[in-house]
Amino acid sequence: MSGPARIVVFGATGYTGTLVARALVERGARPVLAGRSRDKLARLADALGGLETHIADVAHPASIRAAIGHGDVLISTVGPFLQWGNAAVEAAIDAGANYLDSTGEPAFIRKVFEHYGPQARLRSSALMTAYGFDWVPGNLAATLALTRAGTAATRVEIAYLLNGTSAESGGAEASAAAAIIAPSFAFRQGRLVTERTAARARRVADASGKSRWILSAGGTEHLTLPEQFPHLRDIEVGLGLYGASSAVVPYVSAVLNAGMRIPAVAGGIRRAMARKANGSSGGPSDEARAAGSTSVIARAWSDKDELLQTTILTGVDGFSFTANFLAWASIQAAGGIIGTGALGPVQAFGVDALEEGVRQSGITRADRRSDQSLIASAI
Questions:
Q1: pTM for the predicted model, two decimal places
Q2: Is 11 exposed, middle or buried (0-12, 13-18, 19+ CB in 10 A)?
Q3: How far apart are CA 303 and CA 153, in angstroms?
Q4: pLDDT at residue number 257
Q5: Rounded-to-integer distance, Cα 106 and Cα 337, Å
Q6: Cβ distance 16 to 37 under 8 Å?
């Protein structure tokens, strides 16, 4: 393929894929819509002004590869990514295309960085995984806080908080079910370590000082921030989803992950999680998303437990941000990315451009001061 870089949305007729396609069209782009259903693709293409479509299915990897050429941009919203994500990444690498996705699954993210990243560098391909609400704003907030804190900062804590509606899409529920029984990771004492998802529940202060529960999770921050800030020793990322019930989730996670180590039990757990997940079954309405909001708070600490800097970002709900940011980032990538391999958002765009992209996607900086109000307790 030759000519200007094309943007291909794989999984376009799913909930997140449709939001991404709409966001791209609103920004003047003409993406190619790719997916399994010819009829659904045709209806969506007509609704968005007569877009090109392409039949592609993870069960037939060559069909994904046929949609992209060198320098094109492939956005994948097809999850759970641990189950279905490999085909799109491999197609992008083989084509020398740039790749973005909407995953938040720690095990898949780590695979992209550690397994696929080196392959992508050899093919001049940039891999931009987890380029939605999970985990872009935390990368920005932490970078801003750590830059202001300087080399005295040895620990950063990042909290992702949902306000208003907490409804999930079917795809997000499926990804969450896959993530809780798969290995996750954290950055502790200067190294990346394997641990389970939701290993810890903690309480932190939100932007108003209210105590909120968060669950530990493996985000791209663990993989990107140590390179930016070599003096960091510990990175904690937490996601606030379940309110006070978060207190029991680490115990549920521990039981599930213990069961996954027993072959006779693991199959039953997988089947139970598959039944719980609804897959691509819709998500919050436009009205429900408009009623929701998010905040992301990064706090940088010294090795003497002194709070040095806080960055607070606030804005739209997570689904809207994800769609808007994937649209913004893919348009930037279509114009060319300097780096190759697996790239965090700061590495891909630089902090100033990233902050502008995040702002255009609906989340802005709400602080310019240090905040001494952290409340934290681990269980």
A1: 0.91
A2: buried
A3: 7
A4: 78
A5: 24
A6: no
* Alpha carbon 178 to its chain's center: 15
Residue 177's pLDDT band, with cuts at 50, 70 and 90, is confident
For 98, phi then psi, to 5°, come to: -95, 140
Q: Is the pLDDT of residue 74 over 80?
A: yes
Alpha carbon 199 to its chain centroid, in Å, reads 19
What does the pLDDT look like over 23-51, one tens digit per residue? 999 999 999 999 999 999 999 999 999 99
- 91 contacts 122 by C-beta, under 8 angstroms: no
Which tokens is 190 given? 């200067």
d(CA 153, CA 329): 29
* Domains in the chain: boundaries: 7-132+320-356, 136-317
The fold adopted by the segment(s) 136-317 is Dihydrodipicolinate Reductase; domain 2 (3.30.360)
Which position has the higher pLDDT, 205 or 375? Answer: 205
pLDDT of residue 263: 86
Measured CA to CA, the distance from residue 207 to residue 106 in angstroms comes to: 26
Separation in Å, CA 199 to CA 87, 134, 158, 202, 256: 30, 18, 16, 10, 11
**Contact between residue 309 and residue 153 where contact means Cβ atoms under 8 Å apart:** yes
For the chain, the straight-line distance linking the first and the last C-alpha, in angstroms and rounded, comes to: 54
Closest C-alpha among 246, 97, 270, 243 to residue 182: 270
φ, ψ of residue 50 in degrees (nearest 5): 85, 55
Q: Which residue has the tokens 């909290």?
A: 159
- State the pLDDT at residue 108: 97
Same fold, 7-132+320-356 and 136-317: no
Residue position matching structure tokens 């070599």:
230
Reduced DSSP (H G I as helix, E B as strand, rest coil) percent helix, strand, coil of the chain, to 5: 45, 25, 30
pLDDT over threshold 70, residue 318: yes
Report the topology of domain 7-132+320-356. Answer: Rossmann fold (3.40.50)
Q: Please, is 131 exposed, middle or buried when counting C-beta atoms within 10 Å of its C-beta (0-12, 13-18, 19+)?
A: buried
Contact status, residue 237 vs residue 216, Cβ threshold 8 Å: yes
Give the pLDDT confidence score for residue 167 in this predicted structure. Answer: 54
pLDDT digits (tens, 9 = 90+) for 221-261: 999 999 999 999 999 999 997 788 888 888 888 888 788 88
